């Protein structure tokens, strides 16, 4: 079964590109634009994510606020904050159809 990734992006072009890349790698992706939309998601959607990816293209304070919100409300969820690449280093450790 594919790992579920919740992506919080800050630019639509990057959001769409990251969704395509992750889906091509075998992940199931739910993607939202911005912190407000992420915080408005149903709790079951957030809790069902194997990994939450926070995009890199917003100010540090915006991204940090999102990660803190996830850690406060969903402490069991893993999160990764993207850097200036599309693939955070922790993604290969998730089980996907291609990796087993």
Q: How does the overall form come out from the CA principal axes?
A: globular
Q: Which residues form runs of ≥5 with pLDDT under 50?
A: 84-100
Return Rg in Å.
Answer: 12 Å
Series of secondary-structure elements, N-terminal to C-terminal: EHEHHEHE
Strand content: 15-25%
As laid out across the biggest beta sheet, the strand order is 2-1-3-4
Q: What name does CATH use for the topology?
A: Rossmann fold
Topology:
Blueprint lengths: L3 E6 L2 H13 L3 E6 H6 L3 H5 L3 E4 L5 H14 L5 E3 L19
What features would you describe in this structure?
It is a single chain. By secondary structure, the protein is an alpha/beta fold. The chain has a single domain, classed as Rossmann fold (3-Layer(aba) Sandwich), CATH 3.40.50. 38% of the residues lie in helices and 19% in strands. The chain has helices at residues 12-24, 34-39, 43-47, 60-73, and strands at 4-9, 28-33, 51-54, 79-81. Helix 1 (12-24) links the parallel strand 1 and strand 2.
